UniProtKB/TrEMBL annotation:
CDD domains: proteasome_beta_bacterial. This is Proteasome-type protease. GO terms for cellular component: proteasome core complex. Keywords: Hydrolase, Protease, Proteasome. It holds the Pfam family Proteasome. It comes from the Bacteria.
Length: 243
């Protein structure tokens, strides 16, 4: 399975994805789920994928192929005039890929479905974040819904809902995301490290920071251990139930 989070902040966008696609006692596979395209000083576009691996790889390959020589491979996300138009292109490409793979055309409930988080900024507009569904439709993040999750969302959502603040720093946002991911990893074998992290700072049109967080990363281990101890300490400090 998968867990990916895209989050809007006053400073820009922050994205994180796990890399596990299959899980079992003796069957664990790791694949990258975060992909970026950049035109220096003009646009930065990042997508994260969840769902059928053949579908998501075909989607990314098609999008990437159309960026190699845009004049010969329209439509390209590198020539779309707005993030909304980029979202439309990605959504239509996803829908087409699913239709091609499925036995009887595009079906949202088929084994070939996938969902995508798209984030980025094009010069002249604000950073934007979209959640794209296998049916080819999408929604945009805003004040009421400032972050999107795909994959195994339920385990890591409570901490995001309680602690998210659009004014928080990128450093605090990374901490928040790692707690969310750690909670998911602890609860579900189908999500696992390493994690891919990316920061897009507003009006830079570039990836400001990017790294892969491994299972033995010292900061991640501090967050995982510290969060567990803090929860236990808080629980112990709450009043006991009276019979």
């Amino acid at each position: 399975m998968t867990y990916c989070v895209g989050m809007m902040l006053d400073q820009g966008l922050i994205m994180m994805s796990d890399t596990r696609t299959n899980a079992g006692v003796d069957n664990i596979s790791t694949f990258k789920k975060m992909f970026s395209w950049e035109v220096p000083r003009e646009r930065i576009l990042t997508i994260m994928t969840a769902g059928n691996l053949a579908t998501t790889q075909a989607l990314v390959s098609l999008i990437d192929e159309r960026t190699k020589a845009p004049e010969d491979r329209e439509p390209s996300i590198l020539s779309a005039p707005s993030m909304f138009q980029v979202a439309r292109l990605v959504a239509q490409t996803l829908k087409d890929v699913i239709a091609t793979h499925a036995d009887e055309g595009q079906r949202a409930d088929s084994a070939f479905n996938a969902t995508v988080i798209l984030g980025g900024q094009i010069k002249g507009s604000e950073p934007r974040l979209f959640l794209i569904y296998p049916e080819g439709n999408f929604i945009e993040a805003g004040d009421e819904t400032p972050f999107f999750q795909i994959g195994e969302t339920k385990y890591g959502k409570p901490i995001l809902v309680r602690a998210y603040d659009p004014a928080m720093s990128f450093e605090d946002a990374v901490k928040l995301m790692l707690v969310s991911f750690d909670s998911t990893v602890k609860a579900n074998l189908s999500v696992g490290l390493p994690f891919d992290l990316q920061v897009i700072e507003k009006d830079t049109y570039a990836v400001a920071y990017q790294r892969r967080i491994a299972a033995d990363d010292p900061y991640y281990l501090d967050i995982s251990t510290g969060w567990g101890e803090a929860l236990k300490s808080t629980l112990d400090g709450l009043p006991g139930y009276k019979f």
